[in-house]
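Subject: Sanity check before I submit

Could someone independently write out the structure tokens for this chain? I want to compare against mine line by line before I put it in a report. The sequence has 473 residues.
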Amino acid sequence: MPESLDVLEAVAGLVDKSVLVREDAPDGGGARYRLLDTLRHYGLDRLRERPGAEAAARRRHRDRVQRYADACEAAWFGPGQREIVARLGADRDGLRAALDFSLTTPGEARAGLRLAGTLWFHWHACGAPREGRYWLDRALEANPEPTPERARALWVSALLAGSPEDLTRGLRRAREARALAERLGDPAEAAHADYVIGVVQLFADDLTAARAHYETTVARGPVPGQHLSLYGLDMVELACAHAFLGRPDRATAVCEQALRLCEAHGEDWVRSYVLRILALAHAVRGDWRRAEPCAREALRRKLGVHDVIGIGLTLDLLARIADGLGAAERTAVLLGGADRVWSDIDRDRWGSAALNSARRACETNARAALGPGAYERAYGRGGVLGLAEIAGFALGEQPQVPDGPSEPRAAPVRLTRRESEVAELVAEGLGNQQIADRLVIARRTAEGHVERILGKLGFSNRSQIAAWVTARR
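---
Independent answer below. Compare away.
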């Protein structure tokens, strides 16, 4: 306790002297403290005066981040998910710094692989799949050895697949992960890889194979060490396969089993997927009135953890429900909003025939009911809404959809043509001198472009630029 009091007194003293700045993190992430940039750079320069001091400090920071990520993963299937999401979101720069240090410092790459894999739930459930793919691809390339960390990273990378081409690579990686985990005697990681293999089958519309696969994994129950979130999702995907195959009663029975597991642990994220499949089962029966409240509750819970993939899937389903209820204009608005959300993930919805067929049917019906002009206007109104706005509309909290955005939006960050070229070269891993040589400019000019890019984007290191460029691609 005395040591804790010493730390609190020291922090309070630094705040009083304006060395530290206290800020309230968004979304309930608690109080945050940061150094002014000038002081941070001064401190870093002083640290670099002592041989090995900077690497030692960054290593301690990385290890602390790893312990924090371990604790968050252990608590993920439980009642504190929203707080975990908020805190990890507020700590994202710290996560990036720890990953970048590990993957750019000799002898530290395996620690980077472990951290990137531990954060699977953050990348997948909390709206960061593209950034997760970026870090995992780098970590896997730097760590070809057959280790437990590699087995984990392989299936996590496969889980974050974002296009039909990625699904093919994802299936290969998931199978490699399972084979490696089995060779290493790690049944938990083999079970996690099994979950991903079934997901790829499901999105590739191999529904019969996916159903048989998940019947096996659900029947065996959770294996020792398996994360309960992924076992719960085994049941979700089995129910989904039943629903797509026209077996709503079987889907409902599996959902009820999964709901009992979630309720026993006070869990929200997996429960949101269970509720979505319940809504899908009602939709398969044509019971639109029962489907809508389930889908809305699923969306509400997904918003709580910023599950962008789940939000896109649920908006698609709510559009299908609106179509079933004969609400053509609402269908068009929801399709516009859903397409806007999917544009940040994969507009082609991973090439899934089932998802794309349902979307096309909704559009065809809405166009026929409204006429082309009215449909495009309604669709466009949905497409300009932000995530919170389209979700509010879907939940019935905004009964009127404005002709444009309901509030002025901050202008998007725009780089000049030259800055965009420099950002692309940073993403290729080029240093300032290499960028200068490539663009036939002075090194100091290249350095200036990089600094302006960091300032415009609010970033602190080149890896963040690379991740941003990769996400935009």
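---
OP: Matches mine. For the report I'm noting this point. Residues 404-411 have pLDDT under 50 and may be disordered.
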